[in-house]
Amino acid sequence: MVRSNCVMRRLILLRHAKSSWADPDLADHDRPLNARGRAAAALMGGWMAGRGDIPDHVLLSDSARTIETWALARPALPTAPEGAPTPRLYHADPATMLSVLHTAPAEARTVLLIGHQPGVGGFARKLSNGAVRPSCARAFSHYPTGAAAVLDFEIDDWKLADWGGARFTAFVAPKEIG
After folding, report:
1. CB-hemisphere CA count at 13 Å for 26?
2. What is the CATH number of the domain that holds 159?
3. How does DSSP classify residue 63?
4. Residue 160 structural domain
5. How far is CA 132 from CA 47, 87, 121, 149, in A?
6. Do the domain assignments include residue 2?
7. CA torsion 145→45→106→119, rounded to 10°?
8. What is the pLDDT of residues 93-112, one digit of tens each?
9. Residue 62 placed within a domain
10. Total number of domains constituting the chain
11. What distance in Å separates the CA atoms of residue 146 and residue 141, rounded to the nearest whole number?
12. H or E element: which one contains 49?
């Protein structure tokens, strides 16, 4: 439901950066970032800071690579909160992501959610109101590691976020800004 006195809320959907496959015995959940991923994570933090997109609340999967992505992006955003790893976001589907987003505090104006594919791309598509620029629509077919989508809502509480309720405003991959 959109209300006339609503304040814009911004959601940044960040896919974890490139992970390492160096140890074939390591469980998927425990894989860290590789060198390219570590560089990309820091780059994406700088991109968010340069846009003034400083998260008030951070939701992230509890996998090693999402936690490391945030740890490396966060120094560019010194006022951003630590964020709490959320097991439900590990390889979450869009419905689960929406349920977790609904737990964000109403006072948070910008929420960062760090997750995995294909959930992140599907979530962006389902939240989008359909008016998507070509530069953003590509997120629906290919959402590279480290890429970020920015979606704006006109709601006064994250509990009101729903399918088709967001305006998709930006999409960028690390290689486009590095």
Report:
1. 14
2. 3.40.50.1240
3. S
4. 8-177
5. 21, 30, 13, 11
6. no
7. 0
8. 999 999 999 999 999 999 99
9. yes
10. 1
11. 15
12. helix 35-51
Q: Give the integer Cα–Cα distance in Å for 173 and 64.
A: 21
Specify if 87 maps to a domain.
Answer: yes
User: Alpha carbon of 10 to those of 29, 44, 53, 154, 157: distances in Å?
Assistant: 28, 16, 8, 9, 11
Q: What is the pLDDT of residues 130-149, one digit of tens each?
A: 677 777 777 877 899 999 99
Instruction: Establish if 1 belongs to a structural domain.
Output: no
Mean of the per-residue pLDDT values of the chain = 93
State the amino acid at position 161 in one-letter form: A
**Rounded to whole angstroms, how far apart are CA atoms 149 and 161?**
16
DSSP per-residue letters across 104-169: S-TT-SEEEEEE-TTHHHHHHHHHB-S---HHHHGGGT---TT-EEEEEEE-SSGGG--TT-EEEE
Which pair of tokens denotes residue 61?
Answer: 């999967």
Q: What are phi and psi of 30, to 5 degrees?
A: -100, 0
